[in-house]
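Re: [ENG-882] Designed sequences occasionally contain unexpected residues at chain ends

Forwarding the minimal case from QA. Structure tokens:
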């Protein structure tokens, strides 16, 4: 997680206040519109109803221990030093003592979603690597829990407890229905205190904090501190609309910026963990990047939106469907893809082996294809997400003088340049040998050793191909031109301004 963002198993705080300032009025003006806080009145009845469904979670993990007969390494001293005998005798006495194995303990929160079967939801990072998990009910009843399944990509885990003790469950709500400004309650176990209730509002939606590939967090100003991780965030109907997970803080303490996994994402993961013990996500087999205004303009797109396909997995679902590098995915299974990071979530939520329509922007117009969704976990197990291995072979292209354009110097790929820049044997294109300082290419991050594969969505094999494509784009009065660039197997599109 990026600097400044911490799991809520590390902190939680609420800055909740309501101050209503009214302008000066005459004696006749006695009616003042009630504040939202006054309309709510009190959260006491709601909190009393929800508290029994929220649990504390305690985990223990055994600390590493020396094997029997194993002695720590004695510090090295000069031969005959009195310290040598002293430390040897000290370590021998320590070894003879029967020391109990130490255990690391951590605390978190969770909530019961199925009272009959004893299912409890929490964060993955609360129970990760735990040897023993204990669920503590509101009345301090301790119950050993079984880990049903966990998912590191969304930080969700599902536990199961068996008990004759009566349990209270809470339902998932619709997180998509939540609006910025709506009231929420957060209940959890901050700092091990147990059963703490805080209130706040939804501060923002669809936050990306670089915690995982499916970031879509709800942001709140309700207090979230250490121990609140895995606890529920409720709407005023008593439905779980989020799982408290992280805070943003420059210092590590709460500053009123907390993040919760939206329920609509979590409940799909929970359903898969319950059925399979693991997740089964849809997989498209593409590597994507954001569509910038320059990229949109260079491809003749009215406005930047969608996910730009930089490369495809050979024989993956997208490749089999006819998707091409350079396509911009604008719709998937009827759902609009407004920005790049929406596509992975939409695909992940699609059923395995389901045939769905995918709309792409290709060479100035929309094209609709049919794709059969694959399984992400199966692709990971088969190593299909990794870059392809080199196939060998040598390039016999003769060395040529570097050509200048777009603030770049580039030339044909020679065996010497392949070795110098670690270019794959089967890679075709032209290699960048120098980037002019303060040029648009430098601002876009191009470096010596990058291989230009396409210019204007057309393949290039020699420097003359690049210059002719650039000249053609200028004649068409384009403001920028799109390059497909490879850097040690990492493909990406870069739009370079032509001014």
């Amino acid at each position: 997680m990026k600097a400044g963002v911490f799991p809520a198993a590390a902190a939680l705080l609420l800055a909740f206040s309501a101050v209503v300032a009214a302008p000066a009025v005459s004696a006749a003006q006695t009616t003042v519109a009630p504040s939202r806080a006054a309309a709510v009145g009190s959260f006491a009845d709601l909190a009393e109803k929800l508290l029994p469904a929220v649990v504390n979670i305690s985990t223990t993990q055994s600390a590493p221990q020396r094997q029997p007969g194993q002695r720590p390494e004695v510090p090295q001293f000069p031969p005959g030093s009195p310290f040598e005998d002293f430390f040897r005798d000290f370590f021998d006495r320590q070894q003879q003592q029967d020391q109990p194995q130490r255990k690391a303990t951590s605390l978190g929160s969770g909530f019961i979603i199925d009272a009959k079967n004893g299912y409890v939801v929490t964060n993955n990072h609360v129970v990760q690597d735990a040897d023993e998990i204990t669920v503590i009910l509101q009345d301090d009843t301790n119950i050993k829990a079984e880990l049903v399944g966990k998912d590191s990509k969304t930080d969700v885990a599902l536990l199961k407890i068996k008990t004759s003790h009566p349990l209270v469950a809470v339902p998932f709500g619709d997180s998509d229905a939540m609006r910025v400004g709506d009231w929420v309650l957060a209940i959890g176990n901050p700092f091990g205190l147990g059963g703490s209730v805080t209130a706040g509002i939804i501060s923002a939606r669809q936050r990306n904090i670089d915690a995982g590939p499916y970031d879509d967090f709800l942001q709140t100003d309700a207090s979230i501190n250490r121990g609140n991780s895995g606890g529920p965030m409720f709407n005023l109907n008593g439905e779980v609309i989020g799982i408290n997970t992280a805070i943003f803080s420059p210092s590590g303490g709460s500053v009123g910026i907390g993040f919760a996994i939206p329920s609509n994402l979590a409940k799909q993961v929970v359903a898969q963990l319950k059925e399979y013990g693991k997740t089964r996500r849809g997989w498209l087999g593409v590597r994507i990047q954001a569509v910038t205004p320059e990229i949109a303009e260079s491809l003749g797109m009215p406005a930047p939106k969608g996910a730009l396909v930089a490369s495809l997995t050979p024989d993956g679902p997208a490749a089999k469907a006819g998707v091409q590098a350079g396509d911009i995915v604008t719709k998937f299974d009827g759902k609009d893809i407004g920005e790049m990071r929406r596509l992975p979530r939409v695909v992940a939520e699609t059923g395995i082996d389901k045939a769905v329509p995918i709309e792409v922007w290709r060479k100035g117009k929309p094209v609709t294809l049919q794709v059969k969704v694959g399984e992400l976990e199966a692709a990971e197990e088969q190593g299909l997400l990794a870059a392809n291995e080199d196939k060998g072979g040598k390039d016999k292209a003769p060395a040529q003088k570097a050509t200048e354009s777009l603030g770049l110097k580039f030339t044909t790929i020679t065996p010497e340049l392949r070795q110098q820049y670690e270019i794959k044997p089967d890679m075709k294109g032209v290699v960048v040998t120098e980037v002019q300082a303060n040029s648009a290419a430098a601002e876009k991050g191009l470096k010596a050793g990058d291989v230009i594969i396409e210019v204007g969505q057309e393949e290039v094999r020699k420097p003359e191909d690049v210059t002719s494509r650039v000249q053609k784009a200028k004649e068409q009065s384009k403001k920028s031109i799109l390059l497909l660039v490879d850097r040690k197997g990492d493909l990406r599109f870069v739009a370079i301004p032509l001014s």
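QA comment: On inspection the terminal residues look reasonable. Residues 403-497 form a domain with the Pdz3 Domain fold (CATH 2.30.42.10). Proposing we downgrade this to a documentation issue.
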